[in-house]
Amino acid sequence: MNKLRILLEIFLVSTRLGLTSFGGPTAHLGYFHAEYVGRKKWMSEKSYADLVALSQFLPGPASSQVGIGVGVMRGGVLGGLTSFIGFTLPSVIVLMIFASLMTTFDISEAGWIHGLKIVAVVIVLHAILGMSKNLTPDIERKVIALFALVATLLFQSVFTQIGVILIAAVIGFILFKDYKDDGQKSASFPIKKSFSAACLVLFFVLLFVLPAFRELTGSYWVAVIDSFYRAGALVFGGGHVVLPLLEQELVPTGWITEEAFLAGYGATQAVPGPLFTFAAYLGTVMNGWFGGLIATAAIFLPAFLLILGALPFWDMLRNNEKIKGAVMGVNAAVIGILISALYTPIWTSSILKPADFALAAILFVMLLYFKLPPWVIVVTGGAGGMLIGFL
Questions:
Q1: Which phi and psi (to 5°) does residue 40 adopt?
Q2: Is the Cβ–Cβ distance between 186 and 307 less than 8 Å?
Q3: What's 23's DSSP letter?
Q4: What digits encode the pLDDT tens for the residues 44-64?
């Protein structure tokens, strides 16, 4: 009974955070700290800082992985699952409803949809500026980012993106092998190493077996699961990087139009919770509510397997300077991939005339200098898109 009460408490707290956590992953981590460390005192400052460091080290949605980790430390593996469901479910439901309206009423040509596409330009540009300060502070990492930008622009495919990430990891491994970090901490997590090892094995098995199984069977659903799982597994540097990965998977195959894709990305900025719930919108547009649930489960599964798999081994990983160097190289490449995605498909399909650029400039100033919340930017972008339609 006590276990059930703990799980219920985790669900209620995480659901409240899922309903109110606007502003992206950095803001989410602030909300989590205030709630889990400050109010609830479920964990110490040291344990929370260690968990955040792990989530930044791993690919996947950082805030979701921290939420899962908090749930695990509070209520075991079931606690992690409960925390994930509570934090993710509100935005999943909202985006699935939005997707249903998109397909039912065929509003893809509406002016406010074009405005949401311009919002996507502003959000990604803002993300690039914020991330580049930390991820490319020196000339070596700026060159890695430039390499990633040129490669992904000239050779646009998922395999190029994977190759760029691997090459950047090798370069980082070589260049930053003597990198030191004096801020190391240690913590213990209530998961058996055997269970964690099984999660890591399953992560890699699915990553390599799903594409092969997709080719062998030709199954549509296997292809969908593979596309979303691979996107979730290869996202280094935050949820915004999932945009080019998913765009390359879904738009060329004809599963979703570019207009619907970018409109959904803009709408995702208006809802609380993790950016990865964009998958719920995409899956619903493609295959209804069942498709939305499958896409959501597939894109979040890698993050779940990685956080559960890495928790007990975190101290060993973070104290290995060579591994840190590889991650530094990958994070620098992420900036290049983001800039490439900003140009195409986002910029080329959204900024079509001077009025579009003017609206984008207004929204950017509102976001960067006036520091207005994302939902205000989304509403203004939608209204501005309607006005542009009358010009």
A1: -80, -25
A2: no
A3: S
A4: 877 787 787 677 778 888 889
Scored b (16 or more CB within 10 A) or e, 288-316 reads eeebbbbbbbbbbbbbbbbbbbbbbebee
Q: How far is CA 304 from CA 14, 59, 85, 134, 386, in A?
A: 16, 11, 11, 26, 40
Dihedral (CA of 283, 288, 293, 297) sign: negative
DSSP string, 220-239: HHHHHHHHHHHHHHS--SSG
Q: Are 32 and 66 in contact (CB under 8 A)?
A: yes
Of 231, 218, 227, 225, give the one whose Cα is nearest residue 290.
225
Q: Which tokens belong to 386? A: 């309607």
Residue 140 and residue 171: Cα distance in Å, rounded? Answer: 10
**CB-CB neighbours of 181 under 10 Å:** 10
Q: Where are the alpha helices (DSSP H) in 155-241?
A: 158-175, 193-217, 220-233
The upper half-sphere exposure of residue 136, i.e. CA atoms within 13 Å in the direction of its Cβ, equals: 26
Numbers of helices and strands, H then E, in the chain:
17, 0
* 158 has pLDDT over 60: no
In whole angstroms, give the CA distance from residue 247 to residue 263: 12
| pLDDT recorded at residue 127 | 72
Q: Concatenated DSSP letters for 271-302?
A: SSS-GGGHHHHHHHHHHHHHHHHHHHHHHHHH
Q: What is the pLDDT of residue 82?
A: 96
Residue of higher predicted confidence among 186 and 85: 85
